[in-house]
Structures are given as C-alpha cells and as structure tokens.
Amino acid sequence: MTNATATAPRFALGPRFGLHLGIAITALVIGMAVLSRFWTPQVPTRLQIANKLKPPLTSGLAGTDALGRDIFSMIMAGAWNSLSIAFLSVLLGLVVGVGFGALAAARRGWIEEVIMRFADVVFAFPALISAIMIAALIGPGGGTAVLAIGLFNIPVFIRVSRGAALRIWALDFCLAAQAAGKGRFRITVDHVLPNIAGAVAVQATIQIGLAILVEAGLSFLGLSLAPPAPSWGRMLSDAQTYLAQAPWMAIAPGVTIAIAVLGLNLVGDGLRDVLDPRSRARS
Amino acid sequence: MLRIAFSRLGSFVLTLFIVSLLIFATMDLLPGNAAAILLGTAARPDTIAALEQQLGLDQPAYIRYLTWIAGAFTGDLGSSASYGVPVAGLIAERLQVTLPLALIALVIAVAIGVGLGVMAAARPRQAPDRAASVFAQVGIAVPDFWFGILLILLFSVTLHWFSAGGFPGWSDPVAAVKALLLPAIALALPQAAVLTRVTRSAVLDVADEDFIRTAKAKGLTERRVLWRHAVRNALVPIVTIIGLQFSFLIAGAVLVENVFNLPGIGRLAYQSLAQRDLVVIRSVAMFFAGLVILVNFAVDLAYLWLDPRLRAAR
Amino acid sequence: MTLNVRIDAINLSRWRLPAKTLVEDVAFTIPDGGTLGIVGESGSGKSLTSLAIMGLLPRGMKAHGGIVLDGTDLLKLGERQMQQVRGARIGMIFQEPMTALNPAMRIGDQIAEGILAHKGMSRAAARAEALRLLERVRIPEAARRIDAYPHELSGGQRQRVGIAIALAPGPRLLIADEPTTALDVTVQAEVLELLGELIAELGMSLLLISHDLGVVASIAERTLVMRGGRPVESGETEQVLRRPSQPYTQRLIGALPRAQKFAPPATGVRPGGSTPLLEVRNLERAYHSASGHALNAVDGVSFSIEPGTIHGIVGESGCGKSTLARIVMGLDRPTGGQVLFEGEDIFAKSRAELLRLRRGFQMVFQDPQGSLDPRQSVSRIVTEPLFLDPAAPRGKAREELVGETLASVGLSPPDAARYPHEFSGGQRQRIAIARAIIGRPKLVVADEPVSALDLSVQAQVLALIRDLRDRYGLAFLFISHSLAVVETISDRVGVMYRGNFVETGTAAEVFRNPRHAYTRKLIDAEPGIDQPRRYGVARTVVEETKARLA
C-alpha cells in the first residue's frame, strides 16, 4: 500500500489548485505592497476635498473617500503596512514560540511544565485585550500592534512546535542519536528542528493571515498605526460613518483583506497537504 | 476521576492567579502610573499626588493587589475615574449585553459549523463537501467586523429591517434579541467557518480508524456509524477548537460591539482606553482573561466526559 | 452456507491516474463449515480480498467478478442490502485489538449494537445476549466487565470482545484478518483455541487471513498462498505447506527461521584478558506509578556476553526486555546493579568517559521507518556515530568508509546520497545496521530488529547479522519476542519473564530441553507448520469430505 502511494506520480493541477491559487493571490498582494513603496496611482495621503466621495471608476479605480483621497492608492499603501505588521508579529511569535516549544520537548519535566503554564497564561489574553492594555501604557501605534499580535502568536507556536517535536523525539532515530552520544541540544538542531520546520512553516503562513485580520481589527479601533499612514482597518472605520452615502468605501478594503487572508490560508493548507501525504488524501 | 478533576481545578486557579499578577504588574507597577496617565503630561505633581491618594496608589503594591483581588470577591473593584461609578457595577451592567451576544453567536456557530462539517465529511469530495469547504475558506478570511458592516449596509441601510445599532435594554426582550441578532451573526461567521473545517477533518480522521470498519462490519446503517462512532469520537478535537476559538470570539465581540454601537464590555474597554481609565481596563482585562481560562477549564473537564481513557489516566 | 469467490480484479482508480489493478484472478470456495487460510506477505492482496467480500474496500477501489454467498452475488447488492449481509451473515474480526474497538463506547453496547441492528430484540434481551457472549468468549467477571471501556481490558481480552462482536448477530461465516498478529504468542494460542472451539461448536465457516504460516497451519483445512495480488497455489493446508509445488511457496517456507539450518554456535574468543565483553550484574530498574507502588521492570538480571557471539533474549511484551536493552545502551539508568563493558562499569563513569566507552557499542531498532531521519541522506545517517570519535576519518576517507560499510551490509556505495524513503523496509534495516557498525563497535544491541519485516526479508537480515558476527567478530545482544527467530540466530539464549530470566543456556539446550514451565509454555504456544492442525477440529472427517464434495 505505502509503496503504491509513494511511487504514484505527483498530482496534476486538480488537487493542487488551491495551493496554486493561493500562491498567485499572495504574490499579487505582496507585489502590490512592494509596488506601493515606489508608485501608486495617486499619493495615498493627499487630500482633495473637492473630489470627495466619488464612486468607483468616476475617480480612480475604487473611488475616493470623504476627504477625497484615492481609495485604491490607500489600499495599495495599506497592504505594505498591514503585511509588514503581520509579518513582524508572526516572526516575533515564531522565534520565541519555537524556541520555548523545542526546549519544552527536549527537556520535559518541570521546565516543560513552566513553559506550558506560561503559554496558558499568555493565551488567556485575546490579542485585542492585550493591545488595549499595551496601548494604555505606551499609546497606540505600529509597535503596540506588533507586540500585541506577536504576544498572542507565542503560545500558538509553543504548542505547535512542542507537539511536533514530541512526535519526533518519540522516534527511534532520536534514540539512535542519543546512542551516538549526541546531547539534547545537538539532537534538537540536527534532527528535531529540520523535521518540524514544515509544520511550523504551515502554521506561520496561516498565522500571518490571522495576523492581518487582527491588525485590521486593531486599526479599526485606532490601536495600530497612527493616521495619516493608510491602513485597511481604519479605512473601514471611516467608511462606517458614510455607509449610506458611499458604501463603496466599505467594500473595497474589506474585500482586499478577505482576499489577502484567503490567499495565505490557501497556501498554508496546500503546503500542509504537500508535506503530509496523509492529509492529502482527505482534502 | 474526581482526583483528575481536582487537579485540573488546581491548575485553573493557578493560571488565574498568575494572570492576575501579570495584569496587576503591567497596569499598576510599570512606570507612568494610573494617576499620571489619567491626568496627562501637563498635570502638576500635587494634583497627581492628590489623585494617587484618592485611588489608593500611595499604598504599597501588595496591599493594592490584595485590595483588588479581595474586591473581585466582594464586588468592590474600585471606582472608575472617568465614569465616577463603581467598576463592578459597570461591568455587571455591560455584561447583560456581552454575555447574550457571545452565547447567541456561539450557538449559531456550533449549529452551522458542526452541521456543515458532518455533512461534508459524510460524503467527502462531493458537491455539499465542496460547498462547505468554500464557505469555510471564505468565512475564515472575512473579518467579522467588516461582515457586520456589510450586514448593516444590507439589512439596515438598504432593507431597513433592523436598526443600524444600539441596544434598547432588556425591558423589551424581543427588541433586545433583535438588536443582538445581526452582531451575533457577524460574530458567528468566522467561528462557524473554523468549526466547519475542524469538524470535517476530525470526522474524516476518525473515519480512517479501525473501529469504524468494525462498526461497518456489524452491518450498522451509515447514519449510525457516522453519528454514534465517527462524530462521537471526533468530539474531542471539536470541543478543543471551540475552547481555543473562544479567545477570538471575545476579540470579535470587542470589535462588533463597536461596529453596532452596543453598550457591552468590549465597548467599555475601548472607551476606557480613550479615557485612559486604567482602573476599568485592569478589571475588564482580568474579566476577559478569566473568562478564557474558565472556558478552557470547562473544555478540560469536557475531555474527561468525552474520552473514557482520560478518566483512568494518572 | 457456501461462499463462492471469483474476483477477476480489484482496481484502484484515482483522479487523473491510470487505474491500477491490485488483486487479480483470485478464486476460491468455502463450503459450509469449511476453513480456509490465505497467507501472503505484505502487498499480496490478502486483506483486500477479505474486505471485498465484506463490501468494505477503501474509497476508490472496486472489485469485479462474482462473490456469491448462497446464490446471491454480493457485488451486485446495493449498500442497504449489503448492510443486512454484514454482521448477520458474515462476521469479521480485525487485526488490532487496540484500535478495532470504539474507545468511547462500553463493550457491552458494542456487542449489543450488532444484535439490535439485525435481530428484533429488546435492549434488555440484547444486553443479556451480550453478557452470554462475553462469558462464552471467557471474559473473566463478564457481568462486571460488560460496562467496561475497551482501554480497561488487556489486548487478548479485547480480541475476545472482537470475536464476541463478530459472533453476536449469528453469522454463518467468519472472516478473521490477522486476528492474532498483535498478540503475544501465549495469548495468540488462547485466542486461536477459542476461535477453533467456537467455529466447531457452531458449525461456522472461517476465512483466516495471516502472514504467519504457522497460524494458518494450526487452524485452516485448506490454504491459499497469494503474492503481489495474485494466487500462487492452493490446496489442502498440509499439502501446500509441507509439499509446496510452487517455487515461491518453497522459498517462503525455506525462509522460516529454523535453527538446524545453521552451523553450531560460536563460543567466542576472549582476546588476552579474562573479562567478558559485556557483563550485567544483578540489574534492577524500578518504576513508580502515580498511585505509589513500585514495579520492577527489570528485576535482578545477570548475564554476560563473550566477544563474537550472539546472545538472544526472548520474552513476551512487558517482560522487561526492551528496558534491559535501553539500560545496556546507557539510555536509561538502573536503580540497582551494574553493567560492565570490558570490565568497566558504564554508570560509574563521567560523561566524557561514557561517551568514549559508547563507541564500543551501538544499537539497532525495530521500526525501520522511525529509526532513520527522513530529512537526512544515508551518508549523514550512517556516519552519525562517528560524531563521538575525534579520530574519525574526514572528507574523502570518510566517503570511502561509508561506501565500504554500505557494501558490507549488502547495499551499494552510491546509495549514500539517497534518502530513506527511497528504500524498502529490509533495505532500511540494512542502513540502520550500517550505522551501528560503521565505528567498528564490539557489541550491537538489536531490539526486535526483524519483527517488522516480511518473512523472506527477515531471513536475509538474519543472515546478514550472522555474517557480521563471523566476519568482524561482532557480538550482538539480540532481543525478540519470536522464539523461532531467537533460536535461529542465537549462540546463547535467555528466556525472560516478569523482569528476570527463567532459563539461560545455549540455544540448543534451552529449546530442545526446556526445564522451566514458562519456556515449555512458550514453545508449546508457538504455531509451526510441522505440527498437524490443532484448532477447530471437532467435526468428523466424513462430514468434512461430504461438504467439500458438495
């Protein structure tokens, strides 16, 4: 049985469609974010009160907002802000979380107990609540967002990496490495980390998507980057005021967020299927 | 079994204790104390000192911590500086909105998520499964507060079926539930999507197990194999996710309450931030964190009920 | 009841892949009260054949041909109709007693469920029937155990419950797919005996699937040998297994571990000094359970191994043999006693000294899947033990050493650049052995090294181990649950039971003239193909022949 699946040729387009679509969407969003550093149709922060509340296609691709700013340009520039906060915060969570998770799996005993208790404690704070607490101390801003989202990512990565690492530690090749005289740190570097990298990468992709959602929520409440820096969440908050007159203000940023997150989730799921043949059969 | 339940209770209390210390430390001990933050940078030192005395900030830290914790049991959490009313009463009042909102959302999410997930897993790769997968992918990607805005746009601005927000109070229960319905749906969408996915894959995982083959070999109907054997054993991962997602439900509630202008605890937290009212923020944060820990404690207990193997272990 | 099976093909079709034929041209008949055994190695299609009869083939697979049960072609039935056949007319027992029962349902309910599905019985009556069946399959204290969950029972008891579940709706044909493979040999004997007793008593027919020739020989009247999805030969069990006509069957039987095929045991040469290579003195390892009482997994074991000899340890699960192996390897600490390697106590050493000593002994594990890191090349895997050795060759010389070592275990030097998933189970075990011997150790601890392998591959790996002993003077501590394997390979043997040896000596002494009752019990329980059929032979020969002629 196992031989049959191992020698089967790689699937063509069909089952990998999601992954390919996800890569295309993610590439598009990242491309848009990078491009916005050099070029946008309009300067996203330029106010043109005379040109305010114009519907899509009458002024720019996505119309203008209440202050006459070009919505499409703001979305492009917002992509950069949103992606960089999401990326940095997940990176923070990943580095700290995988470190602790791998340590917990390698040492077991009371060290593991303490680390897992720490994860429970951090996990008890929804990202928005810790953002409100942090903002109360140091004020809102990009740093607050990165810190709050990063904090809530830490226990996620601790759990994922510890779980995956424990499964690796239970395998005989770790015993063989111990028999070869390698210490726990060395085995973690040589055997455990390479084998859990896939699971961590999958989780990271999905967490970046989640972080984009949380960042949008934070900036909707004004807890993330301060204006005038364009941000998807604040565009939605502005849009709510003009919902009756200018519904397009609420549509474009929301659709963009959903598409960006969808793309990352598709990549994450696709990667998981590629890395874990068992789940491939299921999805 | 009772012993295991007690040990879970112990770790629940311990986690609560550490969380309370953490909140107290960040909110009360870090530089830039409550009085200074409340009054802003321009405040004169003697004004700050007077307010500190009023807030009890001149006492040693451990006394202030104990006062706060004791207050959590006696219902005296201090007074809100900006509202000028007791914090406990403020939270209790706002709870009447947030708790029903979260509960309605949870019920909707579980009904839709588990239902769709089981339906999808019963016939993998067929049309209903594909549809459920698309729903799940899109539902996870859509921000709940934006979905709320869309609901307002459709049902309030365009169709005028619902009011765009606000809460009439529980004196008229029908109006109250009606006011909570759209926000609850907005809050439930991503939860339902996550649950759909998890239910589907959990049931499919179990469907690969040997005992499912045993059940089929007995000649049981597909329906019985699905519900009594597959879903029954998939409940552990499903309940786990409900517990893990609760944290997102709370974050979502803060946002959705703001979108729909509901006087709930989430909105209270947000307003207190605007007023720099640390006394309120501290207790609200503790309340939410405590709720998350409580839900996960309940999930731990549910495991014991769901998986007989755990009752015997250790 | 007569089952007439003629499977032309079982096909696997997958999206955008050419259909694949997994089983072809299998045909057999099971008469009323007849017993048929299907034997084959992994991938022979024996399990698929049994699942096809039940209509339980995995998704994407389809059987073609005819499976006729008393005049009804089961392949033509719809799912609803098939549900009335499953359980009620054909019962099935599966391999893994650990996973074949629903962990969240009381065993009484699991038995009653099948009764309720097929017979118009009240719940109370079904429960009474379940209790009767539990007693019939000899579950002790059945009245109390009826409300137990599967995890509260032992492996053997679970398999008895599995039998009760299969019998409950009253089928006339029982299919047993590797029913005893996961069980210890003494438990296996009990389960086979029960199975034989029940089919004889109830006059049921049995289709037994097994990889174990001895199990099939002990219960089946007729045998069908399969390989690679095709039948090889079939006939009376005695004739097929004792006078096989096909070369494949002959090879399979030739691969059965048998001691007499090999040369007399090596006695070992002590170079110069007078201490044995490994000496274990009064070794103890106690575990404390949460409830407070201590359990001695290893309880005062003493033995020694001479250089260039193979010391076998045989015992059933839980006897402490794996704990012993881990302690000898220094991977676990004893709570009492000593392990002396060339006269030096390994647990009295500093870490640095232990690491130096450890170069002299290495380990081979059971699971060829989990013992190799899938992310490392064979070259990196094999050279891992050189990590300890500051004098190990580097660069070109190391490459040569790897090539040489791979060649000595029957692989080729270019294999060094490949990855574990490119190899078969037997080849992976060869890689693991290469890793163990690359640093020229004096002792290799092998914990169930051939248990996960097919018979023919197992024979090759055993031959390799002997060869390494003779060529390099390597000593092995060889641990296995299989008497036959230990008997074949070992120079000296220890029979382990509850943490200590009940008997030690040369392999010939122990197995020809067992002195201890437990050793005798083990030897009696081991099913061999040289013994006559012993389970399920209650009916008269006349009836048997009549049934077959009909």
TrEMBL record, chain A:
It is found in: Cell membrane. InterPro entries: BP-dependent_transpt_permease, MetI-like, MetI-like_sf. The keyword Transmembrane applies. It is a multi-pass membrane protein. One of its GO terms (biological process) is transmembrane transport. It comes from the Bacteria. This is Peptide ABC transporter permease.
Automatic annotation (TrEMBL), chain B:
It is a multi-pass membrane protein. One of its GO terms (molecular function) is dipeptide transmembrane transporter activity. Residues 95-303 form the ABC transmembrane type-1 domain. The chain crosses the membrane at residues 12-30, 99-122, 134-162, 174-195, 234-260, 280-306. PROSITE patterns: ABC_TM1. Keywords: Cell membrane, Membrane, Transmembrane, Transmembrane helix, Transport. SUPFAM superfamilies: MetI-like. One of its GO terms (cellular component) is plasma membrane. It is found in: Cell membrane. InterPro entries: BPD_transp_1_N (IPR045621), MetI-like (IPR000515), MetI-like_sf (IPR035906). Belongs to the binding-protein-dependent transport system permease family. This is Peptide ABC transporter.
Automatic annotation (TrEMBL), chain C:
PROSITE patterns: ABC_TRANSPORTER_1 (PS00211), ABC_TRANSPORTER_2 (PS50893). It is a peripheral membrane protein. InterPro entries: AAA+_ATPase, ABC_transp_ATP-bind, ABC_transporter-like_ATP-bd, ABC_transporter-like_CS, Oligopep_ABC_C, P-loop_NTPase. Signal peptide: none annotated. Pfam families: ABC_tran, oligo_HPY. Residues 7-253, 278-523 form the ABC transporter domain. GO terms for biological process: peptide transport; transmembrane transport. It is found in: Cell inner membrane. SUPFAM superfamilies: P-loop containing nucleoside triphosphate hydrolases (SSF52540). Keywords: ATP-binding, Nucleotide-binding, Transport. One of its GO terms (cellular component) is plasma membrane. GO terms for molecular function: ATP binding; ATP hydrolysis activity. CDD domains: ABC_NikE_OppD_transporters. Belongs to the ABC transporter superfamily. PANTHER family: D,D-DIPEPTIDE TRANSPORT ATP-BINDING PROTEIN DDPF-RELATED (PTHR43776:SF7), TRANSPORT ATP-BINDING PROTEIN (PTHR43776). This is Microcin ABC transporter ATP-binding protein. It comes from Kumtagia ephedrae. The lineage of its organism: Bacteria, Pseudomonadati, Pseudomonadota, Alphaproteobacteria, Hyphomicrobiales.
